[in-house]
Design a protein that fits this description.
By secondary structure, the protein is of the alpha+beta class. It is built from seven helices and 14 strands.
Length: 314
């Protein structure tokens, strides 16, 4: 670890007027790729219910959970067992299992072909209702963060609304099982990686372990207050802004002491552009020095498929 403190990462209240926080948040995304947002509108009661139901699901017998694994689905919906996903270029699989909830679209929707229907575990009462509510709350909070980002970039506040409308956003319920004494302290639960999507909103980062890699090559702890969201830039937004907003390498390490032997739970929301949105560098993010460096246009869906193949999910 480093002596840099996470105080350097912006922590803002979404209850404030967006023009007042846009540049503070934007500068944090440019430097660290991360920011912390409070007063995000997701109620503490909903968070508590979701956390409890997540723990109930992961406590089910292994064969029951595996019945919800969708073969050939790339992990987009339902259950992904322990030891399946691995970070790009990693030699070993991550020490986690997870459940995915996505967007439900009518069968006749133009984007329905890109989004499989959700499945729900019958063994956990209230699971569907709670996580549909949480998904909608994440979606709304993400819209607010994107509006602040748009203002920081000098765009119309609602610029991103059309780019993410009915997008392929995914909510992940994560469980990192407790590790044995011989392997616990300092173990890497999720290897260093960057996120694929537009932005990620994370509940549960107050449990020690999340670290980002600074521009100086140092690992910096991300430690938001309880109930706040850690927000980070994904590769899609990095590409759109020509690296002006950074998709930062990050990882989850096991903490030291008593916490090293506890299970870890978290709930990231991977907010995505629409599958048919063409990611083409924003003109305002190309200057005379970097004009030749902008990445070629690519659809959000094709970019996603490329990256899923790299992390063993497609």
């Amino acid at each position: 670890m480093t002596d840099i403190t996470s105080d350097s990462i912006a922590s803002v209240s979404l209850a404030r007027p967006l023009p007042d926080i846009a540049d503070e948040l934007g500068r944090s995304f440019a430097e660290f790729g991360f920011g912390v947002v409070r007063d995000h509108g997701i109620s503490p009661d909903l968070i508590a219910r979701a956390e409890e139901l997540s723990k109930q699901f992961f406590a089910l017998p292994d064969d029951v959970k595996r019945a919800y694994k969708i073969e050939g689905g790339g992990g987009a919906r339902g259950y992904t067992p322990f030891g399946t996903e691995k970070a790009k270029d990693a030699k070993v699989h991550d020490l986690k299992e997870f459940w995915h909830v996505g967007r439900d679209l009518p069968a006749d929707h133009p984007l329905a072909e890109y989004m499989a229907p959700n499945i729900w575990p019958s063994e956990v009462p209230g699971f569907r209702e709670t996580f549909e509510e949480l998904y909608a709350a994440f979606d709304k909070a993400g819209d607010t963060v994107l509006r602040a980002i748009a203002l920081h970039l000098g765009l119309a506040e609602d610029f991103f609304a059309a780019t993410v409308a009915d997008g392929n956003s995914v909510m992940r319920l994560l469980h990192y099982p407790p590790l044995a004494a011989s392997e616990a302290e300092g173990a890497i639960r999720a290897a260093a990686h960057g996120d694929i999507n537009t932005i990620t909103l994370l509940l549960g980062a107050e449990e020690a372990g999340l670290e980002l890699l600074t521009k100086q090559g140092k690992w910096l702890a991300v430690s938001p207050p309880e109930g706040a969201l850690a927000v980070n830039i994904g590769d899609m937004l990095d590409r759109l802004t020509n690296g002006k907003l950074r998709s930062t390498t990050h990882r989850v390490v096991n903490p030291k002491g008593e916490a090293a032997h506890r299970a870890r739970y978290s709930m990231p929301f991977f907010l995505h552009f629409r599958p048919d949105y063409i990611i083409e560098t924003l003109p305002g993010c190309i200057d005379n020095e970097s004009a030749g460096e902008a990445s070629p246009p690519i659809s959000s869906h094709e970019f996603l498929l490329q990256r899923l193949r790299e992390i063993n999910l497609a």
